Each structure stands twice: as structure tokens, then as C-alpha cells.
Amino acid sequence: MQLWDCNGQPGQQWNITTTGELRVFNDTMCLDAYQKGTTAGTRIDVYTCNGGANQQWHVNTDGTITGVQSGLCLDATSAGTANGTANELWTCNGGTNQKWTTGGSTTTGGTTTGGTGSGGAFYVSPTGSDSAAGTQTAPWATFAQAQTVAKAGDTVYFRGGTYAYTRANAGCSSQTASVDAITLNKSGSPGSPITYSAYPGEEPVFDFSAMRDNCRIKGFDVTASWIHLKGLEVTGVRQNNNLNHESWGVWITGSDNTFEQLDLHHNMGPGLFIQNGGGNLVVNCDSHDNYDPLTSNGAGESADGFGAHISANHPGNVFRADRAWWNSDDGFDLINAYSSVTIENSWAWLNGYLPGTTTASGNGNGFKAGGYGGTYVSNGVKHTVRQSVAFNNRSAGFYANHHTVADDIFNNTAYNNHPDYNMLGITSSGAATGIGTLRNNIAYGGTLTSNMTGTNASNNTWNLGVALSDAQFQSVSTSGWSAPRQADGSLPVLPYLRLAATSTLIDKGVNVGLPYNGSAPDLGAFEH
Fold it and tell me: Per-residue pLDDT averaged across 73-80, rounded?
């Protein structure tokens, strides 16, 4: 890689990702220390992105860019300034040939040039101090301090370890009030979010189990927009009286945020809950073992894995590649959502039980795709659930929940639920009816369907008359679905409930706008 006059071409447009990569050429190549070199003089090039430590960088607030693997600075060789000057790793020395600016952010491209730093990096550690500089060697201690300083385009890295909270940031005004452990109310900007990320390879744990505030608790209260939370573990949010419904791990009313690779577990309420706001993406997150023992309408009745109960005019919320298991209520719950929500490529199992047992608890649906408390409303909206898997849930795998509008239920796999698909809707007169548009779905094991009269259903296993057996699948194992995710946070690749090469469910679907192989889409969540 070499210096050249700025010209706005793809070779000068860099994306700084939350994993520390500097991507170029439309995100296809990464800034790379040649042959994983770690010594001064190692040349810098661009190479296919592979997740290696030699492709991870810290963009620092003093304008330097340092290699995660080497600790050395990105350097214009021999302090050159002419076109064609090579770049290399070199011992950091404060020279202007080691200072760079970024015109973009952690998610949006910008030209990288020599000069003063922006889009900086800060650091927080359980052993840090808020009177420190917030650098890698002198990190802060708290989220609050990081938010005070960070601005649009900045990244705050949280080092591994436990961040233990013992009280909220304000007192309870009453026993039915709500308080926050962490309030995120400072927004980034379009294309330049504020990113709060786990330091690469480390696991920061936010533990709220010692809080005794005598009202409802939000672990994270996200009222800001254009922020990105990544790689954080959220656990232990409590209920401390029985006068309320649930508490919440992460509560969201902001818009255009990204919640990525969060591990949300053992909270007394939903792991993540979108109350309002639009354009939020919840991706590659896990929510499990959540149970609300003190909820006022009954123990276990409100601890969903993920929820979105948003008001009208907040479209664009998406749950993608998320997993929900052993939550005492539902895996995913869209009741009282007056703006459309999409759930895709997600898995839900063993919901509706006390975590770790098969003792019945709350509702127990894998995907509860709507409803307005069992009554008809004239402004209900269509939700979409696609390419998702539900199995061994105490109640339905996919449930319309008295919804008023036909949801799109496309290319899903349901196994051994009770039933697999329950499309119970409600008419304007208050009568029960089947409701939903269902295509390319698999129902196998358990009770297959209920409340189908009135739906628009075709090219599903129960419509096609195909004989189903275990032989249609590579495996029907229900163990191992909580296996570790891949290095980039994506779901593990498992053989379970994927079609066998000889399956008669291959190419039996109809085109619903999703990518497919062969002459037609396959049935189920996984294209062969």
C-alpha cells in the first residue's frame, strides 16, 4: 500500500469495522501486515479479509493507527510525502508520518489520509479509572465516562472482565417506577454511529445481579439513536418486588441502532426489548435462561427472549440470526406492535419452561408474531417471519396470537411444537379465524397445525401431501443448537433439520423473493 493524492476512488475508501478491520474496495479487501509480520519495517498491503490479528487495527484518538498483533504504528516510510511512498509498520514515535484522519466511521466508508485523527478509539476496563485518559494503557472504568467523551464515529472498546453494578443511576420514585443501571442517551449520526464494542477476543460481562433498587430495572436503557453495541454480555437484571411485570436486560426507544453479538441471559424479564423507535437491527444475538419469578400477573409470564411492542410509525426493526432458548415466556414476542417487524434466520427452542427444566412456565411460543391482547384493532400491521426454526417449544412454534392482519410466514421449519403452526386470528367482528400467508414451510413432529381455515397457505408440507420422516433430514437432533457461534458472530453451521441430499422437499417451494438454488426454492429454513 502506498500514499497517493486523494481522488475518491474505491482504493481510497476505507470502512473501519467494529472488529478493527480497515476494509477497502467495497469491503472486499483488508489492510494487512504482510505475512503476519510483527517487526518494524514489515510492509503493509491489502489482502483478502480473513479475520487474522494482522488485519486488526486500533484507530487511536491521537491520530495513530496501531496493529493489534504487533503494537506498531502504520507509518509512511522514511517520512515520505510523495505519491508512491510505501507504508509499513514502525515503532510509534509521534511523527506526522504516523498520523492519519478518517473521514468515515465504523460502518461507513471514508478516505484515509495523513493528518490529525478523528473517528477515534477509547478504552474501558474493570480495573480502569474515570480520571484516566481512556487510552489502551490508561482505560476508563465506566460506561458513563465513555459516553461523556465519545462522539459520532468513535469506538469505545471494553476490555474483558466483569462490570458489576450495585445500584441504579437514580433512585426509585416509587415501587412501580423504572430506573436504569446504564442510560445511553447520546446519539451518533447517520453513517457515523458511536460504537461500544468488546475488545477483540475478550468478553466484557455487565452483571446487574447485585442491584437492590425496589422498582423495575433496565440494565441498558437505550434512548439514543445511531449507536452500535457489540459483543457485550448482559446478565442478572433483577425484580425486587412483586408489584410490577418484568424488568429488562436491554430496553430500546431509540432508532437506527445496531445490537450485535449480545449474550443476554439470566435476567428477570426479556433479554432485549424494543419499546419504540424504528430501523433497529438486532443481529447475531443470543437471549436465554431468562425468568421473571416476581411478575405481578404470574411467575414466568413476561420473560421473553426478544420483544418488540412498538407504536405506529416506527418501521424497519429487524431481528436477524438471533437465538432464543429456555426463556420462561416466549422466544420472540411481537404482541402490541403497531409497526411492522421482520424476524429472519433465527432459532427458538424450549421456551415456556423454567430455564434448564421441562417444568411449565409462561406462554411458551417460539415466535409470537403479533396480536393486540385478543381484540380486533383497525390499525394492525403485517409482520414477516422467514427462514427461521422453532422446535420443542411448550406451545406453538409459530403463533399468530389473535392477529388482525395476515403475516408473511415463509420458508420456516417447525419440529415437535404444540402445534408447529397456530394461525389463530381475529376478524373485525371479534370472531376467531385462521390468518396468515404461509409458503414453503415444514411442519414435522408434535401437532402440525391449528386454525388454518381462512389462511392463504400453499407449498407447505401439509398442503403437498409429501411423506415426512427423519430420512428427509440430515439429522433431527435437538441437541447442540446452542453451540458457539462462528468467529464473525454468525450462527453455527449444523446438520440438524437441514434437508438430506435425497429429500423430496428439495425444489418443492414457490418463489417468495428469497434466494434459492435449483429450479425452485426448497421447503424449510435451510436451502440445500
Answer: 91
Show the cell assigned to 444. 414435522
Whether 231 and 284 map to the same domain: the answer is yes
Is the pLDDT confidence value at 356 over 90?
yes
User: CA 496 to CA 507: how far, in whole Å?
Assistant: 19
CA 439 remoteness from chain centre? 26
The tens digit of pLDDT for each residue in 263-274 reads 999 999 999 999
102 and 187 fall within a common domain: no
- Other beta carbons within 10 angstroms of residue 91's beta carbon come to 13
Whole-number mean pLDDT of the chain? Answer: 93
Q: Note whether residue 259 is domain-resident.
A: yes
Q: How many CB atoms lie within 10 A of CB 259?
A: 26
Domain assignment of residue 178, yes or no: yes
In sequence order, the β-bridge partners of residue 442 are 413
Active-site residue list: 368
Continuous H helices in 442-512: 461-464
Structural domain range at position 242: 120-296+306-323
Residues whose CB is less than 8 angstroms from the CB of residue 307 and which lie 6 or more positions away in sequence, other chains included: 270, 272, 273, 274, 332, 333, 334, 335
Instruction: Cite the beta strand spans of 154-275 per DSSP E.
Output: 155-158, 161-164, 178-184, 194-198, 204-207, 216-222, 227-230, 233-235, 248-252, 258-260, 263-265, 272-274
Answer yes or no: is pLDDT of 73 > 80.
Answer: yes
* pLDDT band with cut points at 50, 70 and 90 for residue 2: confident
DSSP, collapsed to helix, strand or coil, labels residue 252 as strand
Report how many domains make up the chain. 2
